[in-house]
């Protein structure tokens, strides 16, 4: 390459290394988390390279169109758009999932719900195939993680949002799981009408943030993520009330229910469940940060 004018020393020319240095300090000056890593992820995306390939091509200069593409990604991040929406992808349970602004970005703590569900499923006898429902599936993260690990069962997943269901279906196609997951549009109550009933397990990560807290969340969340997937109304517990009032219609006697909750909601959700009178065997597991995150209960036999 030496002698080639692309590599001619030229301080005005943007190379990968220079751009990464610039991006890290620019993102940092705008208080963006992990500025160096963010710059790398966005540059790799703009150049359609793997992140590691940036390191192998530090001195490569950028074409005008590449520079323009990268700058527009940086501008979106400075505007607080989450990296997952900029890339259109988020990894969950080692699955690459398409995420659009119609769906909540899957969170690492939701993997605890998947773990708890898989642990229960591993105790079921291998046949017959069980019926499992994911209520309010969003991107499909939970149901796809379960189906990818335990493909012998039958899965249903509901969401009120049709664009969210479309994203979830695309994710199922992407991971070749369409044949074992049926998606349908429904709210909490109609998802559990008797004709859809008799589930061995129901899982859900419903909206659980109190409305007044939503305003105080980071702009990444409250400006960009679908409010309907986060807003648990006045005290954050409204969806739990709706789910617990009706979910027993859909669960087989002895069936398992797993719900993701906010870190301070265990007692309240337990109380709601207890007052309904249909559930027992209540327990709660913590997430990797030590916060209460997943509640379990069983439909009384
Ligand atoms: N865990 C999400 C957050 O803190 C909230 C998810 C939800 O409401 N189900 O942003």
Keywords:
alpha/beta, Helicase, Ruva Protein, domain 3, Rossmann fold, 7-stranded mixed sheet, two-stranded antiparallel ribbon, binds glutamine
Would you write up a description of this structure?
- The protein is of the alpha/beta class.
- The protein has two domains: 3-79, Helicase, Ruva Protein, domain 3, CATH 1.10.8; 93-299, Rossmann fold, CATH 3.40.50.
- The chain has twelve helices and nine strands.
- It has helices at 16-29, 35-47, 51-56, 64-78, 83-87, 110-123, 141-149, 162-174, 211-214, 219-222, 238-250, 266-276, and strands at 89-92, 95-98, 131-135, 154-159, 181-185, 199-204, 251-260, 279-286, 292-299.
- The strands form two sheets. A seven-stranded mixed sheet has the order 5-4-3-6-7-9-8, with helices on both faces.
- A hairpin with a 2-residue loop joins strand 1 and strand 2 (95-98).
- Helix 1 (16-29) packs across helix 2 (35-47) and helix 6 runs parallel beside helix 7 (141-149).
- The model is unreliable at 1-11 (pLDDT under 50).
